[in-house]
Amino acid sequence: SSQPARPSATDGRPRKRSTAAARTGAMAAAATAAAAVAAAAPPMLPDFLARLPAEDVDALYGADPLAARFVFRRLLPPLAQQFVARLLFTERKPVQEKVLIKWTESSALRGEAFVGAMKALRRHRVLLPSAAPGTPGGAATPSAPSSSSSQPPAAAAAQRPFVLNRPFQQKLEAHFLEVPLPPQPAVAAPTSAQEAALHAHAVARWEALLRWVTSCSQESGRPQPAPSLDVVRVCERLALKEQDQLTSKGFCFVLNDRQSQLWTLVLAFFDELLDEAALEAAAAKPAAGAAATAPARKLGPLRLALFLSDAVLGSRLRAKVGGPQEQRFLRFLADIGVLMPGGEVYDCTPAALALYQKDVAFSLARSIAGSDLSARGQGASGATAEAAEPDLKAEQGIIVESNFKVYAYTSGPLHATLLGSFCKIIARLPNMVVAQLAAETALQAMKRGICIDNIIRYLESTAHPRALKRTRAGDPIVPANVRNQLEVWESSRSRTASARAVLFEWGPEEPMAAEDLEACRAAAQAAGGLLWATPAAEVSEAAAAASAAAEASLGGAAVGAAAHPLRLAVTPQVAARLRALLNQRRRPAQRPVSRAR
Predict the structure, then answer these.
(1) How far apart are CA 437 and CA 463, in angstroms?
(2) pLDDT tens, residue by residue, 66-82
(3) Residue 139 above 80 pLDDT?
(4) Does the pLDDT value for residue 378 go beyond 50?
(5) Can you tell me the distance from the alpha carbon of 558 to that of 556, in angstroms, rounded to the nearest whole number?
(6) Contact 46, 104 (CB under 8 A)
(7) Rounded Cα distance, 360 and 353, in Å
(8) Residue 465, CB-side half-sphere exposure with 13 Å CA sphere
(9) 347 phi and psi angles, rounded to 5 deg
(10) Around Cβ 125, how many Cβ atoms within 10 Å?
(11) Cα separation of 138 and 152, whole Å?
(12) Which range scores top for mean pLDDT: 87-101, 256-270, 575-589?
């Protein structure tokens, strides 16, 4: 089958759209099913869908009911789902916001529920502004503009009419009412050997990718499969490595949770396709019909990604499904371990489930903390080796102790490299790495862009089974004192900032020191290069003291000089302008001394 099996929201019996009872029952079934299966949206995908052009969103809704169903179930909050369920069978009649307010309980209106629901409906183009102010096809009366102009903005917004997005409404209505799912063969549950093979493929491909990104594949002494050209382009787009060295973005990527890592790569691949489609559209602009087929070509891989939201372990996708872009996307997913190629089909691995299920992503992240699965062989031999060492796999992971010692039970070099990015490696044994969390290595990691959240998330996602037992007693996986100290190190680094500067000083005995300081301060502030200056109150005191000293010197009396000189710190780019300004104001012999700090 070209699509994984999808659960139906109906009971399998034919429904007649002409009867009001059928519509009411379908509406209730839609709301009940949506509330029952609504799940948290995967990271970054809602933002990607929200920034698609309006014509692409409409084309996505109109291409397949699954897109509208996915947005309805996973991207809309429960209150927004209720609004859609009530408006779904209203024959596209405009509705004002005040009507939606009447459908909402007062407690939801006082909180963020209503605001969040309306924001989500507008963001994903589910509700669109209606051209008609009231009834379908109606026109605005002459008195409407004058009456609405005198109302406050909140009241005017409450009277603004909305309608459901037409392609969204048609496909979602067809999904809940009339259109049955195409007949699909039953997918047999995978055997334990097949599950082990799928799991081994997901682990091996992902570990090979991380080895390539971290440039530690040569340490294993075994040949590693090179990533495909699309994977290399995606990593270059994300700037994960530069000259075989991890960048700050690369460090954050490898220490992030598995679900975010997968979606980072998938969405970067989509951005590559969108850029290619834009270049092709610009080159083929004179050709007729090129613009009509562009959305279908670039949105096909996105539809395949949405199909995976209902995938189960072992679900199959035809290798020849769709056009060249879809087949290219399937090969990309196989290269990062989401799918496993098998002749004419692709099988869904646990990584496919990890795209939409956080618990599976957490379990899969712990799996790569173990031994080098990619070195055990491929196919049946790899599955046999995996099944022969269940106890070894169960006793692999990372343990963080309250004395800041880190014990990583792993036989591969990958996690030793990752730990070395923020820990001091003390010992490396065949099946264990001993490290120490220290201020020096943690601060160096922070300078490369690694934040404490990345470190904590990595240590928790790759935790040893014994460390996971701490949660049963109510204790965190990473000891509280270790987490608090990491936060202290991060806050101590963020409290201060350093920058190159040029310091101008005026001695208290110099004439016109206060005037020169104020002129330089104004010029530096206008140029955006002012870093620090003596406070205005001290400048006034210095000017008064200089005036008193001048008068006293004329009278022959001795007056003590001011205690502190006047200072001004600016960026090196602005210092040259201030020197030119001082040259115009005073003679060269009277210029103040400046030095860089």
Answers:
(1) 16
(2) 888 899 988 888 888 88
(3) no
(4) no
(5) 7
(6) no
(7) 7
(8) 8
(9) -100, 140
(10) 20
(11) 24
(12) 256-270
Nearest CA to 60 out of 294, 381, 399, 318 is that of 294
b (16+ CB within 10 A) / e for 499-530: eebbbbbbebebeebbebbbbbbebbeeeebb
- Give the pair of three-digit tokens for residue 547: 């005036």
Give the Å distances, CA to CA, from 512 to 336, 528, 544, 545, 582. Answer: 69, 24, 11, 12, 11
Is 60 in contact with 297 (CB distance < 8 Å)?
A: no
Q: What is the pLDDT of residues 461-492, one digit of tens each?
A: 888 888 888 888 888 999 999 999 998 888 87
The rounded radius of gyration (Å) of the Cα atoms in the chain is 33
User: Would you list the DSSP string of 498-527?
Assistant: ----EEEEE-TTSTTHHHHHHHHHHHHHHH
Q: What is the pLDDT of residue 131?
A: 65
The one-letter amino acid at 512: M
Beta strand residue intervals within 77-120, DSSP E: 95-96
Q: Which two tokens stand for residue 596?
A: 């860089």
Secondary element (H or E) of residue 569? strand 566-570
For 300-313, b/e burial (b = at least 16 CB within 10 A) is bbbbbbbbbbbbeb
Residue type, 498: S
